[in-house]
Design brief:
Blueprint: H1 9-18, H2 22-34, H3 39-73
Helix pairs in contact: 1-3
Length: about 80
């Protein structure tokens, strides 16, 4: 039995926010529909993508904070 990605919040998050590749999205859609990818696998993949996103955001924030301090120290 397969899933219903059209009704899945996790797939929607992947579709609109996390996966940029249309090819990868089509593969995930079909894997869900035909049951070769279970919900837990999809959730784990989404969780890992979100973790990577926030780690990158945190690193960029640290760099930006350093730059802001340099700029503000000149005043």
């Amino acid at each position: 039995m397969g899933g219903i990605p059209e009704d899945c919040v996790v797939y929607e998050m992947l579709l609109y926010h996390l996966v940029e590749s249309d090819k990868e999205l089509v593969e995930m859609y079909h894997d869900c529909k035909n049951g070769t990818m279970m919900c837990g696998e999809c959730k784990a993949k989404a969780g890992n993508m979100i973790r990577i996103f926030f780690e990158d955001l945190s690193n960029r924030r640290k760099v930006a904070e350093g730059e802001a301090r340099k700029i503000l120290s000149n005043y």
